[in-house]
Amino acid sequence: MPRKGRLFRFVILVIDVALAIWIWTSYKNIKASQEKENTVTVRQADSEMARFSWYLKDVMTNGVPEGAEKVTDMNVILGKGRYLMYNDPGNEHDQAEMVFGKAAFDAGQNAFTASFDPYLIYDVDQKSEKKYEGKAAVYPFTVEENQLIIRSEELLLTLFFYRHNGRNFAFGAFLSNDGIPVFTAVEMEH
């Protein structure tokens, strides 16, 4: 009889240890996945900068490339794409950062709206990045002479659209409320 009792206690101990290990492992896996969701790798910023190399390495300093066509089709201006807002590109105010996000230009029933939904902020000086945790900004806009113009209390931004090598792009600039220049580039999806 004592042998059965010892065996039973031993089995219960093994089950308790196995259960404790399973709970601990599950906890560590959940914690690791949560940390991974909140961590952005440098490769993401590198990937985003590569996406906008057409702007960063060419248009920003040289202007619209030779052979580009001005876009006049509203179907191109209205649509979705990805954007880069490069704050303080000359780092004159020690606030150089790149904000990457998704843009949408839409024709509603009563007005045109532009939506900027950032997802990544890259600090140029620190060479660090973080996910953007805020909401998308939505602004009304007008189209004048085939330029998209956003006028609000926060900004006055004019985007010039052009087509080059079969792809549609836009660029512009504005001053932030602090007087810091913000260069803007958009690559349209269509």
Overview features:
190 residues, alpha+beta, Lipocalin, 2 domains, elongated
Overview in brief:
With 190 residues, the protein is α+β, with helices and mostly antiparallel strands.
Structure overview:
32% of the residues lie in helices and 41% in strands. The protein is α+β, with helices and mostly antiparallel strands and 190 residues long. The chain has two domains: 1-39; 44-188, Beta Barrel (Lipocalin). An eight-stranded antiparallel barrel has the order 2-3-4-6-7-8-9-10. β6 (137-144) and β7 form a beta hairpin. It is elongated, with a radius of gyration of 26 Å. The chain starts with a helix and ends with a strand. The mean pLDDT is 84.
Shape: elongated
Mean pLDDT: 84
Strand order of the largest sheet: 2-3-4-6-7-8-9-10
CATH class of the largest domain: Mainly Beta
Strand content: 35-45%
Tally of DSSP β-strands: 10
Taking all Cα atoms into account, the compactness measure Rg is 26 Å
Helix/strand order, N-terminal first = HHHEHEEEEEEEEE
The tally of structural domains comes to 2
Helical residue percent?
Answer: 25-40%
Structural class, judged by helices and strands? alpha+beta
Treating each run of at least 4 consecutive H or I residues as one helix, how many helices? 4
Give the N-terminus to C-terminus distance in angstroms: 80 Å
User: Largest sheet at a glance?
Assistant: 8 strands, antiparallel, barrel
